[in-house]
Amino acid sequence: MKGRFSLSYINNNFLKLRSNYIFPEIIRRTKIHKEKNPKLKIINLGIGDVTQPLPLVVIDGMHKAVDEMYDMTTFRGYGPEEGYDFLKSAIANQDYNSRNIKFSLEEIFINDGINIDASSILEMFSRDNKIGILNPTYPVYENASVIYGYNGVQDENGYWSDIHYINCTEENGFVPEIPKEKLDIIYLCFPNNPTGVVISRDELKKWVDYAQQNDSIILYDAAYEAFVSSENVPRSIYEIENSKNVAIEFRSFSKNAGFTGIRCGFTVVPKELKGRTKENQSVCLQSVWQERQQRKTNGISYVTQRAAESVYTKEGQRQVANLVDSYMKNAIFIKNCMESLGFKVFGGVDAPYVWIKLKNRLSSWDFFDNLLFNIGIVGTPGIGFGHAGEGYFRLSAFCNHEDTKEAMTRIIHFLS
Ligand code: PLP
Fold this sequence. Notes:
The mean pLDDT is 96. The longest helix is centred in the C-terminal third of the chain and has 27 residues, at 314-340. It is globular, with a radius of gyration of 22 Å. The strands form 4 sheets. It has a 7-stranded mixed β-sheet with strand order 2-8-7-6-5-3-4, with helices on both faces. The protein has a 4-stranded antiparallel β-sheet with strand order 11-12-15-14. A two-stranded parallel ribbon has the order 1-13. It has 2 domains: 17-46 and 316-415, Aspartate Aminotransferase, domain 1 (Alpha-Beta Complex), CATH 3.90.1150.10; 59-314, 3-Layer(aba) Sandwich (Aspartate Aminotransferase, domain 2). The chain has 416 residues and is an alpha/beta fold. The protein contains 12 helices and 15 strands. The structure holds pyridoxal-5'-phosphate.
């Protein structure tokens, strides 16, 4: 049967994704440099992955759950598709109730991290909707819009004709301005990746008001909420009054508790949130998403959910806070070092990313090459997050402290 190929039609949208994804190119250039300089220690401040091991409390929670799986009386098979109540209760009580936000357990859906839901959530909607994404942006929202066919045609800068790009620029401090036109679905992400910028309660309220006035839905990615320490910065969109009928929120244990490899997060779909049919019939999106989960998933592993539950114990909260603090020390350190070199810097205060404005109109790939090929430091060119990221460079605080110090020493020496 050699040479025979399937004639099934594919979803062409997948082929459209390839052109602007820079991360394989970062890996390729880094690999080439490493091969040429095998003794050089390359330090990676480009990654959004965590580097510190899991908190002990999480390991203990997992061990206990593993032991339960070996006992006939406590063994678990398939769990509830939407997640176990023990974890959903911990989330409802500690993430929301403690801030006076009430959710029933049916409104919380446990998943294997934000990415899957931030993308598949679009399955609930019709392609007639106009999607808005921030520019620059974490790539998943644009990729999802393309995979599900919300995109149209691409121009020479990589922008899609049917996606509305909400520009975040130096002038607006990378906090997006309210669009003049009507958008149906808007992806917001705060604290932001890549810019590390946060949104104040007053600014976020403007978005909630906009969504109310335009019958829009906000898809709010709060992956980095645990890094917020400033008083006037919301950790959840639901801290804003009247947001339950306009917003879906995504949260994750990846960055606060080091679950990037374990995989666990959750999506909140409030019962107040409504969509409509073409016949103008109102539909509760919580029940649509519940239906979707029940038809498409068999849930997240029991051991993983017990691990996530342990984050909410008193000791878990203490250990997670220590982890977050240790990354934030790096963020502040990177920010201060780059500012001491005369760069204009965004982020790094309530977020583990530092967004650096490059000098002399240097392109972000040129700056990348300068750092990699001269001093063995890897960062992320801003262009990887969309055209508006050109001229900027992202450094991440997720490295260990010693390597971060070493990297910044090399950068200061090289650029002074
Ligand atoms: N959302 C944002 C803004 C991110 O930066 C990341 C990871 O870097 C994710 C979501 C992915 O989160 P998860 O590991 O929960 O899929």
